[in-house]
Amino acid sequence: MIRWLKRVFPWLGNVVEAVYTVLSGLWVTLRTWFKTYRPERKTFTEHFEYPELPVPVSARYRGFHRFDLTTCISCDQCAKACPVDCIYIGKERVEGSKGFKITGYAIDYSKCMFCALCVEPCPVDCIFMGATHDLSCYSRDGCIVDYSRLPLDVAWGRATLNPTAVAQSKVITEPVHGGPNA
Description:
A hairpin with a 6-residue loop joins strand 2 and strand 3. By secondary structure, the protein is of the alpha+beta class. The chain starts with a helix and ends in an 11-residue tail after the last helix. The protein has six helices and five strands; from the N terminus they run H-H-H-E-H-E-E-E-E-H-H.
């Protein structure tokens, strides 16, 4: 029939052929949908309820860093190993000793590629990859997290790193551990 229409009315044959092609494609989609439709299946937000309940992440997930300020010896190994130079360490020599004291430990997450190359060379295991996957911010300034100015529970890895804690760390005028300003 389509060949006959194409001979008699070429434009009408093209319209019929286009409609037939679209309907046959929709039939394939509809047939597959009927085969795979399960009413008990929920949407992503019904499964996880994201803002209230965290999304499960795998054990090897490389999220935002966790940093233990008390064990860091400020050896700069993590900053040297970082391929994009996103780790900034401030330190000063401790008088009467041969070690250093941390005055600032900041990571610029607008540069960080979460490769975990900074974790391996640390001799005291004070930096490691956490499971936090959401640290949204409205400006690039919010992407720089200074772990030495965070509240103690967050900076030492006992609580989660969240945008509220990062915003509070920008308000604190002196470091939590005393530092050179104390």
